[in-house]
């Protein structure tokens, strides 16, 4: 929050709207008592999820552009200044900045070719007229019972592109994000979020295939490597179980090797190569199972979305 007060642009050139999504701690009181050199407008919604929260904040805003960020990032002082310069020069409809790991110069979008739009809303600028024409973020990408949410940002961006909105990426517009997936639980929870992928696929099939999780490995681009590794893991588990049932040592060894290799690859995706600590058996087992959690989430998502089966292949 404090980093907003350090922006290099005049303070009367922007407004700050904070949305409290149904907090049940002392967040509301803390916001009321907060003293800052910039005025804060506080909006409260009742556990509507991030999409509903952003929609509520946008409804109170008056500027030509909506600048979205989140409560866990640190915004560099020239964030608004650099974004404003870019928007003044290009008049683009949607501008993405670069999100870096806190305290480093490394992008959170590892191994992704540039420019591939992601529409991540911790560092996103949207022309108001475009936002209103689309109708904001779709709240269908939030499950109030589990608290899971995912892909509402991609759905919004894909809808904008399909309606002819222009898009650009500026790597000098920077925010810093804390490290993610530092625990096994956070990784497993993220795998469960893929329950929303079938809905996104059903609505925006072509852009889903083209833009979702594109990774670059040398000269090769691979789409959705987590999906490919998870399918491979599922096959490995099948061979392992069948081998155990028919008492085939070769099948068991092959299946186990595939399962372990997939688990290591998944852990590297979430936590980097330095996090492959196979001597911690419970953590290692969790990452061997994580691809199955991912696949189960996709299947459940197809049921919820009543379609989107193509996402499985």
Notable traits:
two-stranded parallel sheet; 2 domains; Spore Coat Polysaccharide Biosynthesis Protein SpsA, Chain A; 16% strand; elongated; five-stranded mixed β-sheet; 45% helix; alpha/beta
What report would you give on this structure?
With about 325 residues, the protein is an alpha/beta fold. It has two domains: about 1-180, Spore Coat Polysaccharide Biosynthesis Protein SpsA, Chain A (Alpha-Beta Complex); about 180-305, no CATH class. It is about 45% helix and about 15% strand. It has eleven helices and nine strands. It has helices at about 25-35, 50-60, 80-90, 130-135, 150-160, 185-190, 195-205, 205-210, 225-245, 250-270, 280-305, and strands spanning about 15-20, 40-45, 65-70, 75, 95-100, 125, 165-175, 215, 220-225. It has a five-stranded mixed beta sheet with strand order 3-6-5-7-4. The protein has a two-stranded parallel ribbon with strand order 1-2. Helix 9 runs antiparallel to helix 10 and helix 9 crosses helix 11 (about 280-305). The mean pLDDT is about 90.
């Amino acid at each position: 929050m404090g980093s907003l007060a350090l922006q290099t642009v005049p303070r009367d050139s922007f407004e700050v709207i904070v949305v409290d999504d149904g907090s049940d701690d002392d967040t509301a009181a803390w916001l009321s008592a907060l003293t800052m050199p910039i005025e804060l407008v506080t909006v409260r919604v009742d556990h509507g999820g991030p999409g509903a929260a952003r929609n509520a904040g946008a409804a109170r805003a008056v500027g030509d552009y909506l600048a979205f960020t989140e409560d866990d990032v640190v915004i560099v002082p020239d964030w608004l200044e650099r974004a404003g310069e870019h928007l003044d020069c290009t008049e683009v409809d949607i501008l993405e900045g670069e999100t870096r790991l806190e305290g480093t110069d490394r992008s959170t979008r590892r191994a992704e070719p540039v420019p591939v739009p992601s529409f991540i809303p911790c560092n996103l600028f949207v022309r108001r007229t475009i936002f209103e024409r689309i109708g904001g973020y779709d709240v269908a990408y939030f499950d109030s019972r589990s608290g899971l949410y995912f892909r509402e940002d991609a759905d919004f961006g894909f809808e904008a592109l399909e309606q002819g909105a222009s898009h650009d990426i500026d790597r000098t517009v920077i925010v810093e994000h804390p490290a993610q997936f530092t625990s096994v639980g956070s990784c497993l929870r993220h795998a469960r979020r893929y329950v929303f992928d079938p809905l996104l696929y059903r609505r925006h099939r072509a852009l889903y295939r083209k833009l979702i999780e594109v990774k670059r490995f040398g000269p090769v681009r691979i789409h959705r490597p987590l999906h490919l590794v998870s399918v491979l893991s599922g096959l490995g588990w099948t061979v392992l179980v069948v081998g155990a049932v028919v008492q085939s040592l070769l099948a068991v060894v092959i299946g186990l090797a595939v399962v372990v290799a997939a688990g290591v690859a998944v852990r590297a995706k979430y936590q980097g190569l330095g996090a492959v600590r196979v001597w911690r058996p419970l953590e290692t087992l969790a990452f061997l199972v994580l691809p199955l959690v991912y696949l189960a989430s996709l299947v459940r998502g197809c049921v919820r979305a009543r379609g989107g089966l193509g996402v499985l292949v």
